[in-house]
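If you are new to this repository, start here. Below is one unmodified record pulled from the training split, so you can see the exact layout before writing a loader.
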Amino acid sequence: MKKKQLTMALGAGLLIICVSVLGYFSFFRTTTPVWSPSNLWNSALEADHQDGQVYKITDNGKKMLSQMSRTVAIGDELITDSGRHYKIKTVDGFNAQAEFTGMDRELVGYIDEYENITVPVVGQQNWKQRPVALYHTHSAESYVPTDGTESEPYNGGIFDVGDAMAAELKKKGINVLHDKTPHEPRDTNAYYRSRRTVADLMKKNPVAVIDVHRDGIPDPNYYSKNIDGKEATQIRLVVGRQNPKMQSNMEFAKKMMAYANKVHPGLVKEIFIAKGNYNQDLMSTAMLLEVGTHTNSKEAAQNGAVLFADALPGLLGLGGVAQAPGGYTSPGADSPAGWRTLVWIIGVAVLGGGAFLLISSGSWQNARKRLSGYWGREFAGFMGPMRKRLNKYSQKPSRSNKGDEDDNDA
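And here is the target side for that same chain:
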């Protein structure tokens, strides 16, 4: 008796654990990044960057494609401003080699579409009543030539870059939410802390949510560019690839690069698809910007941010980007990552049920007998009444047959 009670207790405990895990990921996914089985062995969910380190990405012919302080991993992707699409195949130390996978047809299509388009009058757009939200996961990031340091905790120069972007948007009549909540320290949990900030911003139903950063490579010339007669820094767009809304985030990023470079040629350098989530599962129009690097002047970074803000309302007014309300949205179950997570959850439930059956039965043989007996009883219970109805119907003469019999008797 005691042994049976023990096995029942173990089975019940395992079932409770499985249900608790499923409940956690069902009800708390707005404050934690969307879960994926791969997160179990990823030591850092977001591939973050460290100031001073440089990852160099080259093609098969050793031609330099890009460089960044952000950690580069196999499977990451790079899309240049001309539409050339690359995928990282090998990483050896700080040297990554990428394979050309072809021209990105979607981006090339947007470039062609925007080539001759006139800038919309933003004052006539319905989306204007919804704000653009800005925030900073790495709130200590600063610009050495201007701020005197690369990092100023709780009050980084990156806030001033966000202010410049917000001011330009407001000049165009756009409602802006610029959140300056600090998220120190700058570690692998920074995105978990900033997720609470994004969750609060989402309550205001924004049309887009933008996380403003800067890179950390030592070479300031890599981002420096004269754009429209001003010394400015170029911008990199980063999309998280461990994210069920990746496809919609990518579409938004491609449209943004195509349109911004049409309005201000050369402004957006590239799109980098990195390992991580970056809270982009919360909204289809979530974006992460890197505005220059820490060795650029803050004024140049502010100029780049202003040019980006000048282009953003025109893109949002083109339609197809800002039509659906923002608000809280559940992670896209219709995306491949969403389906994978759903399959994984179903698998956990089945595994938990199987383990409970095995423990309560005491052996594989008993579990198999109990399962086959259960399905036999259920199938017999389901088919029994149906067989009776079918037999009764087949034995009862139809009205047409009865009429035929009467005619024959006559």
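Two things worth knowing about this chain: Confidence is low (pLDDT under 50) at residues 24-44, 319-341, 399-410. The two ends are 76 Å apart (CA to CA).
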